[in-house]
């Protein structure tokens, strides 16, 4: 017999923190899926390099190696990563690209890059209209707190990206 | 190296199905050191491919940042009944293959 | 923070303020009390102000007894200029922090970093809120903010003789934009920082009211005790539940790859049942490792010919060959257990779509990540109740196995809170030990007794490999080489080599880490040189520190406070040592007498230069506790290995310093200002070698290995 804790109403009665101003007693709290929640996306336009955001050189180089001087726009890509990873050894990641995946309009490849791993390339996927859905999941290693960048190339030659920062909690004790 | 795959036993023609594949492999990065401080040499799976009814439907190029026991989830449109062949190749030339059959109606 | 109400010791209710949004276990009449409590306004995420002018300051780091709950609040309050008597700190809710994109910054409490890493943004947090409150008042009055003054939570406009309080303008202030670069006070204008207001955590700890994770009791709670494979790294083979399932209070056995736990209606019954449970382990191959075999393994690091170099100045080998006098010595330090007064404990509750944990943790983010991964739920579905920890010392900063175990056991009984507590034996024998170390030092002096050559070969287990692998560079553990690689003495030819020798024994950061043993090796060795050439150890060091003003300053300060060089009373001897650690500088003098190998430590002087200090009494307490740790670990503590497992299992065979042996401590706070150095760990680092040097002065016996009890000494 399940204890009353299991169906805890308390989970739902969490106040709407996350807002400044008056704190109300027992409001409804919306739970938002991680997918929609976050990702600071960075425009990775390499020609010329806009955005003063500091990305370590090797990752920028690796991206340049992969895509030459073509410009990369923010959008279409949903990069699903946890905000915190305990030690970064096994971090689940899902990349989804908003695409009809038709012969005329589909994702041809998805690349994942790391800002602070010993090597900037994580994985490259090759896709096509036969996939039906541009959605891939895997598990990656992150050496320390850093940004992960996903770049999708589309059949029309355009490039789209999303960036998420993952904090590894193991750091910060030395 | 062993491997495990999850493919639906049957699907409707045109249905987008989800496939999961896992290979047992240490994915030794080459950046770790042993207990006396010496570098442990790299040993990783470098590529993973899925062929369906003879054509490639998925390909991944792996780098050391893919976690041990590389795991992938991807999709494909069910077309004809047939065999799915999964191939992992590592940097020492070792190859593992796994097969699954899918009925398509 | 959870406000823990404890009407009687047996059962209590965790009442949560809405600010943290945690579990509320109902008791009649709570609803109204809660409603009243919820009236605060969040002016910024750091500061909530109530209509009655009381202020809640949110704390991101952890209180471990080191005073951060108070010190961090002081940093905010100094700039906020509220009425300090109306301030109450609360832990920032970890789930809220995640939802708001880590708005409270780092939560890790280790590396002596809580104050020095937070001070700037916390002071800015206070200053921003103050500016917003003043702006709100000024706006209400139709005057310019520059014409208003603030003190003690009261905002006044002299010219029109009007005033108001923070509580009254909090809501209006909360609607204003947060200033990005508020004006901070000049340190010379501080009125709170540097003083010693009563600490928030002390009264309840003194009266016994303080609830720790081990004290958590919730309706329906069950208790678990756990056994992990005694040989580190081994696996569980089998167990026979039938032998204990009939016992009174027995609920369940839960097992995983390398542990087995018994759940019962109270912890004593769970632990007794666990002791009676037949268990078979697969020791994983390390069942023959012993302290002796480990010593042989370390020796290979001393004897190896090709070993990575951590630092190289000049040519030590050549200078040694040409030296007029040479010295050589080998030093050793054993594994140490953290021996936190509260054993590792976590309570977990599995709910429909999430998990709730109660943990004394040094890092709320690490706990929420571990609980999320163990339960397989998103971070936002995890509630973490951060409890004041019954000692941290590095044991609870990044090792989350007890949290994950509690979650795993709770998954076997969803809806029931499960309190897992490691027995003292488990805690002693499944530690994350201070690594073992064997170090060989060689020194060469020229004909004028100037120290010209120095060679150090370290053979040690690497702690960075276990906790921060990116700090291992080319086989060198850059944490383990501290004290040598960053040594301040001006020796023209100096080489430090590091031979990593990792055993199967799990290691972790033990308060001060490399500074728990390397200072003994270095400062004890320097003392040996001084003794051989009949040089005064204080005077010998001074010229070598000519280019290091802060090191020299703190050495001079302790020598002055101790009146080094004066005639000592009959039978009283002294030793001196220097160390710098975690951004601070420290030196110590130990005065003691020895009677038939019984050491009576009379007085310990500790000089500490940590730049700015926040809570003066807390700094003194850290110095005093540093003395406790130094005296205890140097003389009494060691974890030895036999048959692949830790031998010591309780305070009976792992003794720590007792009250009766506590000497008088003379803290010498060197107020150099101008920087922010750590305080938690530095104070113990110079005391250990000063103790060893004093015992030598008293007995002629040079102590090159710890614990000193193995040389026949004890405290009297």
Tell me about this structure.
The complex is a heterotrimer of chains A (174), B (105) and C (716). Chain A is mostly beta strands. Chain A has helices spanning 34-37, 57-67; strands at 21-22, 72-74, 77-80, 84-85, 91-97, 107-114, 121-126, 135-140, 146-154, 159-168. Chain A is built from two helices and ten strands; from the N terminus they run E-H-H-E-E-E-E-E-E-E-E-E. Mean pLDDT of chain A is 77; it is low at 1-5, 7-19 and 22-54. Helix content of chain B is 0%, strand content 53%. By secondary structure, chain B is mainly β. The relative contact order of chain B is 0.33. By secondary structure, chain C is of the alpha+beta class. In chain C, 29% of the residues lie in helices and 25% in strands. In chain C, the strands form nine sheets. A seven-stranded mixed sheet of chain C has the order 12-13-10-20-17-18-19. The two termini of chain C are 43 Å apart. Chains in contact: A-B, A-C, B-C. The interface between B and C is small, with 6 and 14 residues.
